[in-house]
Each structure stands twice: as structure tokens, then as C-alpha cells.
Amino acid sequence: MSRHLASITKIGLTYGKSFFLPTKNYIRKNFMVSVSSCKFNEYSSNDSGCSNVNAIPEVKDYNEFLQESKSSIHIGCKTLMQLLRINESTALRAVHMYPALQKLPCLEIMQNYETLSAIGIQYQSIKNNIWLLADTKEVIKVKARYIQLLPLELKHAIPFFNLKIKELRTLVTLMKIEDNEVPNISRIHYLSEKLQCPLTTMCNILMKHKYLLKIPFQRIKGITDILIGHGVTAENILNDLWVFRYKENTVLMRVKKAIEAGVNPIKPWVVRCPESALNEIFRRNTQRHKALEPYTNIIDFLAAKLQCSKQDAEDFVDRNPAIYKMDPWKLKNVIQFLFDKEYKPEHLMQTPRLLYFGYKTILNRYIELELLKMKPTNLRVLCKSNAEIEDYIQKHKSMRIPEEQLKSAKEEDGISN
């Protein structure tokens, strides 16, 4: 028994706080281990000096192992459950997401785990990135050698294990060239700092947008400086990384044109949108400025029209933020119409919702009520729905009929007398 225990190595199966797996030589000489149905028996021996060993796997002969290995998904799932201490649903999802785990024998999966651990990748990192196990031991070692040449700590560079060996070789060469051009800083560190995200997150982003690993570093720096220099936020850049596919001159030209068109705030979409879209924005903003003249913004315009301070106008708009996006021509026409009908600025400030309606809608409602000799003393009436206004009209008509009948009766009494 001591001869068998001596050939057990600590690389995989979990029981309590110990990790045990028979070595390849042990399996070849004796049995094949079936991880999917391993049972653990308490073991202690005073004679062999192995009293610290708590458990050993129960092994099966080769034929039993071969029969059980037919269910590759089942074996892969069980291997991950025991190796990483995860539940069945998580293991099953991983096996389906990474089909290589169905083809790899359980022993190779465990050897992959041992290889990853040996190069310094922690258990939790492997558990969070199960796809790391879906490769061969030799490929993992080659990738690790290249990744260790990158100017990154291994814990941050884990996403790069997703790259092919050829891609990793190219990346390492590129990083060496960049280090000669810009010492002590790589595109990974630069983007992480400028776009305000952790290194691991940036590595994951680079894996989703691999073209960022091929674009010249100087272009990345130039475009980033242009965007940030013109007020584009890091969050907006991260949400639209396609902007780096354009040349620096194109980015700068588009940003300047967007500023001329009155786009505020500037976002990366102004670089990739059709030029006709920027022209349309420019046309609208030109009309907006004409409507607000001689004022330069909506706050100054409202402060003058409503005869209030600039602070009061700001508070008024802050309570009704939709006003910022309203057509200034419409605002101008509505306000002027109400003033022509002898309403005061305070009436409008008490009923800001009226500004949400179109000029023609307000005009038609007012004329309808005026023809019925029902000129509204309160502007809230004009804010009602069509059905509510109809009810309002019918209600006032019904109240006026008795008054007219009474007046008519008095006139008749006067005649008879």
C-alpha cells in the first residue's frame, strides 16, 4: 500500500483540504481512474507512516473505465466539479461552451490545471476562467512563455491565453517595437490609464476588439488625445471603440465639424456618422440660433421673455428639462401668442406644461373657447386632453342654459307688466 501511496501526486481531486490524483505511471501500471465515479474511503496506517493521508480514490479496471468514458460530457462535467469545486449546472454550462472539455480525458484536464498552477495562475482565476483548461498542456506552456514576455503581471494577462500562438508571437514582437519607441509604457497601460479602467478589464476589451492590437500605437495615442482633448468622456470612448479604425486626420476633421455644427457634448459617433447627418445638425442649430437672437442660449431667452432673473430661468428649465430640447421657434410663437392675449409671465411660469404642446394645438383650443365666450382665466384648461376639453365645454354650456332661461323669463315678466 505504501508503494501505491508514494505514486499519488497532489494535483487535482479534492477531498477536504487535500488534493490527490494518481500519476500517469501509476495508471498505466495498475488501473485507469474514473473521476466521474470516484469514491473516497478513509485511510490510515500506523505501519506505513502515512497517517496524514485522509483519502484515496477508489479505482476501476481499464474495461470499466473505457465503458464509463463513453459519456464525454458526463466525465468532463464531473471532472470540473471535483477539480474546481463548482456545482453541476456551472460545470455543465462550461462543458457546452467549450467543447474541447468534452474531448480531453479527465487526466489531461487535471494536468492542465497543474500546469496553470505551476506558472502562477491562482485557483480562483482558473475557476473564473474555466476555458483555460480547454487546451493541451503543451500549448498552455508555449502560450505562457510568450505571455510572460509581455509588460504585464500574469494575473492581468490571463485573457491573452485566448489568443493563438501565432497571434501571441506577433503581439510580443509589437510590444518590443513599441518599447523602443515609447519606453516604459505599452498600449495596454496607456489605454487603461486614459480610459480609466483596470488592466484586466482592458485586456478583456482588447480580446473583444483585436484590431486594437494591430493598429499602430502612435495612432491610438493621437486619436485618444484628440477625443479627450475635445471633452469626450472615457466611458463614451469605451462604448464606441470603432473610432480607432479611422485615421487621426479624419477624427480631428469630424470633431471640428461637429463643434461647428453645435454638437454638444462631442461623442465618438460624430466620427463615423454620415457627413449628411452632420450637415442636418448644422442646419437645425443654425435655425435655433436665429430663433434665439439676440440671445445665445435658451436660459437668456427665457429670462428676457418671462421677465425674471437668469437664476429663476435656470430653475424653471431644470424643473422642466424637456425645454432644453424644444424647438425655439415653437417656444417663441407660444409665448408671444399668450402675451398677445393679455396673459402675464407668471401665468406661464405657473403652467410650464403648456410649452409642451404645439403652437397650432394651443391656438385652435383657445379660439374654440373664445368663440363660446369661455376665454380661460387659467392656462391649465389649455393643457387638458381633447376629451377633457370637450367635457369642460359641455359642462359650462349646461350651466349657461338655466342662466339664459332665467334672463329670458325676466324679460317676459317685464313685458307683461
Characteristic key phrases:
24 helices; disordered C terminus; MTERF; two-stranded antiparallel ribbon; elongated; 4 domains; nucleic acid binding; 417 residues; mainly alpha; 4 strands; 5% strand; two-stranded antiparallel sheet
Q: Can you describe what's shown?
A:
One of its GO terms (cellular component) is mitochondrial matrix. One of its GO terms (molecular function) is nucleic acid binding. The protein is mainly α. It folds into four domains: 1-133, no CATH class; 136-214, no CATH class; 294-380, no CATH class; 384-417. The protein contains 24 helices and four strands. The longest helix is centred in the last third of the chain and has 31 residues, at 386-416.
Task: Explain briefly what this protein structure is.
The protein has 417 residues and is mainly alpha-helical. It has 24 helices and 4 strands. Helix 14 (217-229) runs parallel beside helix 16 (248-260).
